[in-house]
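so my prof wants the structure for this chain in the tokens format not the other one, which i didnt know existed until like an hour ago. anyway here's the sequence
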Amino acid sequence: MRLLGVLGGMGWSATAEYYRRLNEGVDARLGGLHSARVLIHSVDFQPIDDAENAGDWDAMAEVLVDAAKGLQAGGAEGFLLAANTMHAVADRIEESVDIPFLHIAKATASRVEASHQRKVGLVATATTMAGDFYTTPFEQRGIDVILPEEGERPEVDRIIYEELVHGVIKDSSRRELRAIMRGMADRGAECVVLAGTEIGLLIDEDDCPVPMHDTTAIHVDRALDWMLTEG
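here's what i got, hopefully its the right format
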């Protein structure tokens, strides 16, 4: 089993979910007393969020590049970034080290492509919804991306950063996201991508009127394949 580096802490609730899912996945695939070989670098999220709000991608990249180098120095044979939004600087992180980087959007776009769905609804932070760093892997595969209505996007962002990042789960927020996903389905979305690593803590398949792709679950599956069956 390869040693996987997890660059986490953005927020901690998502990193905890990655750790749980990775270990459950190894247990399911190998049985016995096997558990995941994981090296976690959990950063302080506040400076990264400050950099995001200021549009200072260099400051964000500096913190995450340093963490990625630490994972490599610690023996990680490959690594992932346990946050969708911070993939805004994924290219710089990947270029800073000599070990494989498992990209969440590429893994998710491949899963959607394999499902033969050509139009997806995207639920994510404001930064992810506003940029092309996340949608490009979908567009390269001929998949169209539908976003929530412009007036709905701040509420999605608020739910993620003010609630889910802190592990807070509210039924009122679940109802809000249900309505937003129904709206995207009504506008032609054949599936919905939960492009926030914490959103799966709040939403499950019964909440969505079309098939749903949880990026955390997909990313973990990709990591398990890499750890256990490749190379």
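also thought this was worth mentioning. The first helix runs from residue 12 to 30.
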